[in-house]
Amino acid sequence: MEKRINVVGAGLAGCEAAWQIAKRGGKVTLYEMKPKKKSPAHTLDTYAELVCSNSFRSNQIENAVGLLKEELRLMGSLIIQCADETAVPAGGALAVDREQFSKCITEKIKSNPNIDVIEQEVVSIDDEDLTIIATGPLTSDALSEQIATITGKDSFSFFDAAAPIVRAESINMNKAFIASRYDKGDADYINCPMNKDEYIAFYEELMNAETAEIKDFEKKQIFEGCMPLEIMAERGPDTLRYGPLKPVGLIDPKTEKMPYAIVQLRQDNKEGTLYNIVGFQTRLKWGEQKRVFSMIPALENAEFVRYGVMHRNTFINSPELLSPSYRLLRKQNIYFAGQITGVEGYVESTSSGLVAGINAYRVLTGLDEIYFPNTTAIGALSNYVSNSALGKFQPMNINFGIMEPFKHLDSNGKPIKIRDKRVKNRLISERALKVMEDMKKDIAQH
Length: 446
Description:
Elements (H helix, E strand, L loop, with lengths): L3 E5 L3 H11 L4 E5 L23 E4 L5 H11 L3 H8 L1 E2 L4 E4 L1 H14 L3 E4 L12 E3 L7 H11 L4 E7 L2 E3 L9 E3 L9 E6 L1 H13 L7 H10 L3 H5 L27 E7 L6 E4 L8 H8 L10 E3 L2 E8 L1 H4 L12 E3 L9 H19 L12 H9 L35 H25 L1
Parallel strand pairs: 1-2, 1-7, 2-6, 7-16
Antiparallel strand pairs: 3-5, 4-5, 8-15, 9-13, 9-14, 10-11, 11-12, 12-13
Helix pairs in contact: 1-11, 2-11, 2-13, 3-4
């Protein structure tokens, strides 16, 4: 009997994984429960359905997601190919006709002779078969139980309540100070003080900001799991000052007084390039988060690498479970791909499917796995979700903050600080694309 790889889920990650295996000559059995059964968020019968947006975000390589798409194009991504074929006008972004995009993916998957599609729900995972689990953030209850058994219940989350994250270099440190409350322990927090007028203006805009729609199946979970910042604020103008914005125990060295309110930022990665806004779990729309949170003086020019989210999102504690190939460490026959790994976004899910598919095929054919380096966007994502040095793990979009910094040296070998962000980002992207060109050749030869 010929060896096959099972792929569970025909979303963006699953279809990409199946395609990468099939185009290399591998045989795939792709399981998809649609159209017989749909999750609460899906309506189409076709594969790779886009649910919350038709946008794949920026196409510019000065933007990290633009770089990620360009790397995927280099690697022959099915998802990006169909996105390009079904694109609609969107300025510098890549947006698609949802139904045509999904139809394009479905037709290419179903017409590939190396892919057999079985339209049924998978409720158990075989202990021996090489399998990629790509069932997404709304994985069915039955399969969720099976995954929890495989990974350990403490390593499996059903709810995503995460605060926004900003790039450290974009914080205005002239309006912030580093300290811990009551000077206890190390000074681990960046503190963003607000006076009374600044706080009242912030509070009023927070109360008037537009929130994202909550699905019926998410409502109970959201309010049991964590209190959104704006809901907390509804209890009165001083509620936040006694909660996440409390200034007690913190003295601003510039004024030598306790501020009226304090927003604290906590280091989010080992390199110290990213900081999360403590206690700012929120349902505000992303544009509203940028507008309102930028009213905090020290964050007036902050670059948000991810916004706060509160929604149903099934994901595993990947840093404790996966290798950079998205392979399960404790059960070597299983890979994960897509949002269930903690990558956030359509393009990021595609990237994980590509890496898992390539490596599952290599294992099937007796080749060594290949890890993408942190100098590439694809590699930065896979290394982020498999980095056991992280603290509390939360899903993440691609951003330059998780990539290896670019070191520009003068003639004496001393580093030169590049102040123009677009120039710096372009240099990171150009370096990444050169690395990807070499990787593409190397993968093709083996």
